[in-house]
Amino acid sequence: MGIDTPDLAAVDLAATAEPAAAASAAEWLTLAEIGGILGESPSRVRRLLEDHFLIGSARSGSFRVPALFLKDGELIAPLRGTIMVLQDAGFSNDEAIDWMLSVDDTIGVAPIDALRAGRKSEVRRVARTLA
């Protein structure tokens, strides 16, 4: 009774992708799937959302979170601080997700890819300039 971790390497975000196109190209997970991957209860997953460790969107109907926000069965640690910087800059959750999944010319890759590679400071520096 386990949920398979999605193949995150299979997600292709083209350098020319528009924000909405990049977001729709990403794999999205339900809260139940996230709970299964993290080994957490649904109420704990909701708490992670309330505390800004994760953000998601209901733009496609049901509420989902980009699979790229998880790595090796865990949350990406610097994601929370980046979410908070973007929210402080006035971004909605949808706008923050679009920005994180789209290639940024300053960073050279999508901000989420830079966070996954450990480039937290660079991503937050660029995010602070977006206010």
Give a written overview of the molecule.
By secondary structure, the protein is mainly alpha-helical. The protein has one domain (21-128). It has helices at 19-25, 31-38, 42-50, 79-88, 93-101, 111-116, 120-128; strands at 28-29, 65-66, 70-71, 74-75. Helix 1 crosses helix 5 (93-101) and helix 4 (79-88) packs parallel to helix 7 (120-128). The model is unreliable at 1-21 (pLDDT under 50).
The structure class reads mainly alpha
Helix content: 40-55%
As a whole number of angstroms, the C-alpha radius of gyration is: 14 Å
Q: Which regions have little confidence, pLDDT < 50, spanning 5+ residues?
A: 1-21
Largest beta-sheet characterization:
2 strands, antiparallel
Taking strands numbered 1, 2, ... along the chain, how are they ordered across the largest sheet? 1-2
Give the helices and strands as they follow along the chain: HEHHEEEHHHH
Features:
44% helix; 131 residues; two-stranded antiparallel ribbon; mainly alpha; disordered N terminus
Short recap of the structure:
With 131 residues, this protein is mainly α.
